[in-house]
Every structure is written in C-alpha cells, then in structure tokens.
Amino acid sequence: MGMLSGWMRGAFARAFPEAETDFADIGVAETSNPEFGDYQCNAAMGLAKLLRQAPRAIAERVAAGPELPDCLARIEVAGPGFLNLYLDSAWLARYVERMAADKTLGTPAVGAGQTVVMDYGSPNMTKPLHIGHLRSHNIGSVLDRLHRFLGYRVVADNHLGDWGTQFGITIMGYRHFGDEAAMQTAPLEELERVYVLSYEKTKADPTWMEQCRAELVKLQSGDAENLEMWEMFMRLSMEELDRMYARLGVKYDVVHGESYYRDKLAGTVANLQAKGLAVESEGAQVVFLEEEKLPVCIVRKSDGGFNYATSDLATVAARVEEFNPDRIIYITDERQQLHFKQVFAVCRRLGFEVGLDHIWFGLMRLPEATFSTREGNVIKLDALLDEAESRALAIIQASSSDMDDAQQREVAAAVGVGAVKYADLSQNPQSLVTFTWDKAMALDGNSGPYLQYAYARIASVRDKYAERYPEGTPETEPLCFDEAIERALALRLIRFGDVLTRAAHQYKPNVLTDYLYDLAQTYSSFYQNVPFLKAPEGVRERRVRLCGVVATVLKQGLDLLGLQTLERI
RNA sequence: ACCCCGGUAGCUCAGUUGGAUAGAGCAUCGGAUUUCUAAUCCGACGGUCACAGGUUCGAGCCCUGUCCGGGGUGCCA
Q1: Could you say which nucleotides of strand B lie within 7 A of any protein CB atom?
Q2: How far is CA A397 from the centre of its chain?
Q3: Domains of chain A
Q4: Which pTM was predicted?
C-alpha cells in the first residue's frame, strides 16, 4: 500500500516537524490479525530514541493529527505504540470496483522504461529434459511474466548449453557407440545414452577424456566433420525441446545458445589480456580476483579451449550491445553461485555498468540421492507430466463423468501440468527440493488444481446467474459488504499489485502462490457459507459482481504463474 | 581447511525493513451435501523455531560460537 505509507510518513512529519529525519523508512504493513485493523504501522517504537519520547506518546501524537485520508475510517493506538489503521469500507468497495476495471488490476508500472534480459532454462542440448530442469524454466518464466506485467521490457533469452565439453564427450560417444536408427526415433535419448557411455569411459581411461577435449577443440576451431555432427545434434534436440516447451508453456524472445558467441571468445580473451586483466598461469589464461577474495577465473584453458566463463563474458558484452539492458538476470541452480560471482567481478573490472543478478534456486534431489544423467537415475520431465495428467484424468473421470472424453483429456492436461508447476513454485526457490511423486503432483490443499477449481466454480456461478437472470446486470451493481468475509475478500483483492511487486523484486514466485491460495481459500469459505444466487435481488448482484472480481484476479495470477484457467473442471 | 545455503508441528514447507497469541498443506480425529461444482467447507489435535550465549522496549528473523545436513572451492557447466 504505497499511498498509505506515503500518508503515514507525512503524518509523522506533521506531528514532529522539528525531528531530524524525513521518516523515509516508515511504511505500513498488513496486519497479522484482523483485530488489529487492516494495516498497521510499527514505526513509533523504533523512533522512541530519536524523538526522545515514549513510543506510545509518539503514536498518540501521530494518531491525533487532524486529517485522515479518504481511505481511512480511523486510527487506533494499541499496546506499546502500534498504529492500527482501519480502511473505510465504502472507500474499499469503490477501490475494488476501480481496480477491476483497470487492465493491470491496480498494479503500478514500476518497471516502465527499464529493460531486463532474463537468462533462464538454458538446458544442455545433449540430453532430454528431466525433473531437474523444471525449476529454472518454471521459476524463470514466472519472473519473466511478472516483470513484463510490471512494465519492464523483458528480453527472455534461452542460453542453450550447446558449445561445451559435453559435446566433446558426446561426439566421442556417438562415433564409437552411436546407433543411427535410434537417433531418428528418439534422438535425445540416444544422445544421452552415448554421452553416459562415453562419460563412463573417461573414468576408466584417462586418455579418453583427453580425446574428448580434443574433439571439442576441433569443433570450436571449425572442424567440418565435427561441425556437421554438432548441427545434426542441435537440430534433433531443438525439435524435442520445442515440443516440451509447448507442453510447459515456456516462450523465449531469443534463443542464443553459447555457440552464438563462439566467434567472440578469442576476442574476449584478447581484450582481457590487453587490459591487463587476464594473465598466463599454469598454461592457462586467468583473471586473478584476489581483491574480491575469489578464486581465479579461467578464461582460456591450457589446451586452448574456452570455457563457460569466457562464454558468459562474451555474452554479457553482446547483450549490452544488442539490448542495452538496465539489468541482466540469470536463473540457475545454486551450484553456479561462485561462477557468477567471478563473472560479475570480471565484468565490473571491464567497466560494465549493467546490473547483474544471479538468482539461484535449490537443487532438486531424490529421497535417496542426488540424481544425475551420469548416474542414470533421472526422471524425465515428460514422464512426470504424463503421470500427473493421468492422475488428474482419474479424478476428472470420477467427478465429471458427464464431460466428454476429449474435454476430460484437455482438462487433465491443464490440471496435471499445473499441479507440477505449482508444487515447485509454491515453495521458496532457494530451498532444496526432495522430489516425491505425491508432493510434485498434489491435487488438493495448497495446490494448482485448488486454484483452478476455485476459478471454475466462479465461472459456473457466472453462467448459472446469466441463465437464471438474463436481464440482470451485476457488473454495475455497487459493491457493499454485508458479511465480514466479503470485506475480507476485498482486502485481499486490493493487495494484488503489492504482491506482484514484492514477488518480482524478491524474485520469489511463492509470494504470489501464497497470496492466490489465501485468496482462493477466502473465496471458498465465502462460497460455502454465504448464498449468492439464492440471495435477495441486489445482494445477489453485488455478490456475483464480487465473485467476478475474484475470478479476474485469480485468472491474472494463474496466468502469471503459467497455469491455465478452465471454465469447467 | 575455507566459502555459500539450510535446520520451524509426526511429514512437506510458509514466515515483508526485527513487532502483538509463530502459520499453512498433508496425515490423524470429529462435523457439514433436498443447495451456487464435496478436487470444497467448519472444527479439533499438534511447537524448547537445532543448541548456547549476545544485541534491545521487543528476536524464528540481527551478531558470536557449537552441532547436523546440502552445495561449492584453477582447466565441467
């Protein structure tokens, strides 16, 4: 609530004109308990020393100020000096009406005029997506949509892993163990198979790894045969990836893999050398980062090959040149924290002024162990989504048996993938995720389907109303809160913009899922306990209208999360 | 050895810049459907916020130390 915070700062300034502060830090917060009002301000306690007065006296002086803004009905001082703010209910009702008519639902355009490049997903191109790839795509695409909604210009870039050592390993693997028939039918599975075999061999035979590195160097220096093989791998992988992206609803503005920057790698290293940043050490070109207390950053290996850091440095330069962003945001797992600290440190030394953020998330692991392609204990993302859909379908068949088969499948697809996405998004990105089938596909409680179900029930109310009262016009009926739960619903609705801003700026999709779940829960309680279609005329219309605003907010919120809304479940 | 995270109810997890009585879901138990979709709702049960100090009007949150877990630490990405 930006306007309430602003007013509160003014109220403090008026009450204490002689104070040596502008009260810039003062803000209001939602109350944890309705008995403390709708919003609260706790600043009086913190200012006791500065103002040399008892906190309670400070709060009382602020509360005694002559004028209240239109939105407030009253202010109360409680306990040691809490300021409890009560919104005026009529104002609240008008505000809900206005926000519902607004395209952005009252969300401030905090990102207007700013450009951010978002780097997420970025899968390795030599293997199929597995459940460990879900988080970067999922969290990244939500942050992407949130930023767009807040007015940022977003350039979503899929920085494919298409130019690293894994290709050396894969080329060796394909050459020795490749099966062309399998390559046609299930290319990514086949690439993964030969990769695993080849990788296994590096453990037993040290010269194998050297050969893999040599193949990579050949590829990176333009060897025709390796390049041809690489192009085939890329084409087949991309087809597979596009299919998965359609299923996940992930979209990019640009797909520049590491290979896109391949011609700039040598120049990047030369530039670092010219500026005296990169020096030779143990046969490699490295940047020492002792001032930053970081380990050395290797920008060219002793065998002449370039690595991830080189590629990322070239990428930053290219993005700055092409998009002139205010900020570049990387979304990867936690293991890359050090890498990005190093890359960002080198960028600062190179004089880049663009903001650089690394948003990392916790690894996904199995109850018994960390999974990895190399260990062969992966669960394919495709298989997870299939299982989720079939579980959803079973429930739909049981509860919506009147729905035709095709529609049941369509709903199951939306609910299944929604459940998987939501289960991931609803926790703090930084926590480590231990994968279990049941948790990943929860269909009740705090889950995607719960929200989709709440939306579908509202859609049903809307349709039934239209059927029974074809002449009715709930959309113009002034809102008014007859029941406490209706006011509680309105209070939640007007928080939408604050929630989106916080979710985006803290890079936490779970801020949005928590909010939507709370909203849907409040709505469900309203739905269960208060009649609307059977309420008297007038009351009926305003309740149906309130339902409509909840539906609009739910739909927008689910859309930002990448979950489909269904009119019927 | 060093660096970065984490430890909150039986399980899985939330917890705005430090605020009032630490919250959900699942599980368990008890209720609600001649009704607008029961994938729902209402209620009960459940806590030494890892441990020990410290900072202050006030600490799950900040500081120090310890224990436990995950990740990382020059030629993978």
Answers
A1: 4-6, 12-17, 19-21, 23-26, 35-42, 57-58, 69-77
A2: 32
A3: 2-87 (3.30.1360.70), 257-361 (3.40.50.620), 381-561 (1.10.730.10)
A4: 0.95
